[in-house]
Every structure is written in structure tokens, then in C-alpha cells.
Amino acid sequence: MAKTGKSIRSAVVMSAAAAGVVAAPQVTEASFGEEDLSFGMQGEHVKTLQNLLQKEGFFGGFDTPGVFGEVTRSAVQQFQANHMLLPDGIAGAKTFSILNALPEESLATEEAEDTYASESVSVSITPISDESQVLRKGARSSDVESLQQYLQKAGFYEHPEVTGIYGNMTKEAVRQFQQARELKTDGLAGPETLGQMNQEIGSNVDQATSMSRSALEGTILRQGDRGSKVESLQEELKELGHYTSTVDGIYGPLTASAVRDLQRETNITVDGIFGPQTFSKLGNTSGGNSNSSSSNDSSASSSSGNSSLSGVVLRQGARGDNVRTLQDELKDLGYYTGSIDGIYGPMTASAVRGLQRATGISVDGIFGPQTYGELSGAPSSSGGSSSNNSSSDSSASSGSSSGDVLKVGSRGADVRELQEMLRATGHYSSGVDGIFGPLTKSAVSKFQNQWDMTSDGIATQRTVEKLEEVSAVHMSESTSSSGSSSGSFNATNLIADASEHLGVPYVWGGTTPSGFDCSGFIQYVFNQNGVDLPRTAAQQWNAGTTVSSPRVGDVVFFETYRSGPSHNGIYIGNNQFIHAGSSTGVTVANMNSSYWSSRYLGAKRLH
Hints:
Layout: E1 11-14, E2 25-29, H1 44-55, H2 70-82, H3 93-99, H4 107-120, H5 142-153, H6 168-180, H7 191-214, H8 228-239, H9 253-265, H10 276-282, H11 293-297, H12 321-332, H13 346-359, H14 369-376, H15 413-424, H16 438-450, H17 461-482, H18 491-499, E3 511-512, E4 515-516, H19 518-528, H20 537-543, E5 545-547, E6 555-558, E7 567-573, E8 576-581, E9 585-590, H21 594-597, E10 600-605
Antiparallel strand pairs: 1-2, 3-4, 5-10, 6-7, 6-10, 7-8, 8-9
Protein name: Cell wall-associated hydrolase, NlpC family
Region (Disordered): 281-316, 374-410
């Protein structure tokens, strides 16, 4: 199917300014079709829409190009009526789906698509990191990118760009995927949908891993080499956790360093050259922590079918008889549906998480003593009902951590301090209990992703140092923002509560999380933080104290569809604000954009 319209490369960058209390995505430009277009908006997307409508004979071009005025709205309404859609004049998902299905006369566009289609086959799809979350319209993350990549590969997502933004076209693609898989069809990517998707991604990855590894047998590779075999090696090293850069088929210093790490871990000659000896170690490493597995491989004399797994730690990247035994056990229990290939890939990890979730233990996808206890029916070695977070397979038991690393299973004062800092930066909203569980890991991972670190959810010394630096500024700003008010108002908590509603749809007159208008959203969030506000934007403007420049937690006002204050949002720092937009729902916007900067009235302090 040929695509129409100008594809605009999108980028989602996390605000690096210390003033941003919440990890707020700063959208430079979404791809055409991902966001609704309506009256009053302007920019390249509006111009693209106008051009498409003009080609179809619905737009006479009397509005200023790139400005969504009355003529453009009328043209959209005519187009919608002609295609049996509700003629509301808003270019949304259904309108874009028809526009994108129109034939394209440009041969260059078709050739570009052919090139894209041929290249997309080789895209490596990273499994979705957190199956327990719910992705919906307005979400922006690396997990949305993975979701779009897989939906694109499976033929459901027809947009040529993977944007990382959960917009209209992503929602429609999810609905089609859910319908095809006989899941609840609501366009929300929740645990059931994400679990199914990860299972399918894992099946493809496990098969591809086995094939790519066999291509390396008998090969010698060193710095300067290029090609598909180097790509296969990089994929293998990446799965084992030694290589974290781009899979580009170039054997450079980073690839050589990863090979040396593997050689060092497996106690062979460390020279950075990949040869037969190093190849043999690709299949014998479990990604770091199962030196005892070889001695357990030969313990078949036990009368119990899974006794060879006692004391073994297995994780993604592991291979061998122990993995086959685990897959057999998981298959018998109904958690694993893939092939028994001895490769611990995403599909096996997903099955382990299913067992862990069902038995109420820490869910990390790593098979260790606690998971073994549940698999075999023996009592868990951790004992006690309070150990779900602390006795994870992937870490030492009690104590804060070994060295300067905090990870799942760590606990104590250091973890409590970590959680406090993550709360200050807006990444963590759960209880500060000093237990490093899945929620803390997810918060650390999000923080690392924002600051371009390895997003593995492990709080290394580098991560903690950066977190201390950023949270200190956030804490001081939120304190100064709330210093003039009485009571216990805290701007950090206000922003954290507001961010919980990202993606909630816009409803005219809405005042609840099922749907907000702009002032209803302001009133609701402030009320959660002990501040009673009047209902409308104009009333809220009159109730506040004017400030020359906004600080975090202040309310910024705009003049939109009528004169005077008719729209508002909560300032979160770095010239960004969170608000309930009529075409976006609750989202984050940039005050420097041409639309908002030209309509800005001022800021008020309402606490």
C-alpha cells in the first residue's frame, strides 16, 4: 500500500534541564497522522493535510498554508462526509486512515517505500521491558518503539516511521492486533496484549539466535572486519550483555572490547579476536552467573526430573541442557509454548515471569533458587511472607547491596534514599519502603533512559551519582516553589500526580480521570494536593497571584478560542507544561512552540 503525505522524522527527547520535576518528554515533531489536527493548529502537518485535501478536490487553498482555519475545517468536514465519517472537522485516526490509503502518484515515494520495506526485515526488535504496564494514547517510550516495530513487522502498523509516540495510528494498529489474536479489542496495550506480543517477539528471536550463531562456526573475526557475520556476532554479544552499542556489522573497538569481556568471563586468552575457542564459549555462558551449571548438567541420576536445576541461576543468553530441562518443566506447567531448543531467549524469560507472577514471588524473568522452589513444589528457601521483593533470583538477599550497585533484591537505607530521589525526579510514585522491587527497577530504568545511560534498572554508582545531582536541583526548586504557601503543599507531588493522568482523553466539562477539560484537570490535581480552586480557567486566573516568570507548580494561561484566559496548564520546568488539550488529551507541551507562545497570557501562583 503506497503512503501519502510527507513523512516527518520524529524525535522524542527527554528534557535534560534540571528544572523538569517530571520525566517529561519534549516532543520536537510527531509524524504526520500520529496526532489529531483541529481548528487553530498550525505547522507542517497542517500544510501536509491541506495538500492532500487539495489533491482530492476538497480544499481550495484560501487559508494561510499551514494554518488550520475555517476553510480547512470545512474541507475536512466535506472529506469526512464524503467517506461516511462523522463530519466534525477534526482530522483524527479514521480520517488519517483513509487519507493514507489514497493512491500516491509520486514514483519516488513508492521507490522509497520499496527501499524501506526491504530494509525493515533486518530490524532487531527489543522485547517490551515491562509487561505489567498499560500503554495508551499519549505514551512515549522505548517500549512504544518496540511495540511499533513488531506491529510494523507483523503487518498491523502501516506508518513508515517508528516514532516511539503512541498516537492514533498506533492505537488502531493495536486494535487490529488484538482482534487478530482474539484479545479484548480496546486499543490499549496492557499486560495481556504486551505478553502476547513479547511471546511472538521471543519466538522469532529464539529462532533467529540459533541460526545466527551457527553462521559463526569456524569463523575468525577481528578489528577492521565488516559484514553479516560481524552483525551476527554483535547480536550474540548483545544478548549476553557484553555489547551495548549499535548492531552495524563493523568490528570496531566496542566490538573488540565486548569480545574481550566474554573471553575474560570464560577464562580463555583475552585478545579481542573472535575465533573457534571464543565461539565455543558463546554457548557455554549464561550471561554472567552460573559457573555451577556444568556440574549440574550431569546430575541426571536424580529421580526428580528437575533436580538438575537445583542451585542453578539462568537468565537471557544462557544455553544448554539446563535450559532445555527448564523449558520442559515450564511447558508441562503450561507457561512455555515454544520449541525446546536450550536457548534462554525472551520467550523463555516470559514463561519464567508467568510462573513467578502466578506463585506470588518477585517477577524478574530470571530462574534461580526461589523460582526453583516454586517449580519443584519445595518450600522457598527465603521463607517468610515479607520476602517477595528481597529474595529475588537476580540478587543477593539482604543488606543494601554489594559494592556500589543497588538492584532487585537490595534493601535498606540506601534503597530508601534511592526511592526518595526517584520520587523527587517524578520517576517513582510508590511507597518508600527500602525494598528494591520491580517498581523501583522500572523507575531506575526510566531515569537511566532519560539520561542516555544503559537502561537496565540497576542503580550503579554512575546512576546514583547522576540521580543525586538531578534530584538535588528538583528538591530545591520544589521547595522554593512551595515556600511561599502555607501548609504542606509540595510542587513535586503536584507534578507527580498530574503526570499519572498522561493519556487521559479530553472531555468538554470533564472533571474526573475518565476525561478532563483544561480547567477541570487543574482543579482535580490541585484538589488532590489540598488546594481548592474554582472551576473555570477564567475564575482560576482571577484567583491566582501574578508572577513574572513561572516556577514549577505554577499555572500558565493562554488565550485560545475566545479573548481572555480560556486555556491553562501546570508548569513543570524547562518551558514545558502539562495540560488537557482538546485534540491530545492530557499531554506535555512546549511553551516555545509557535502555537502556544503566540497565545501566552501569563502565569499565576495558586497555592
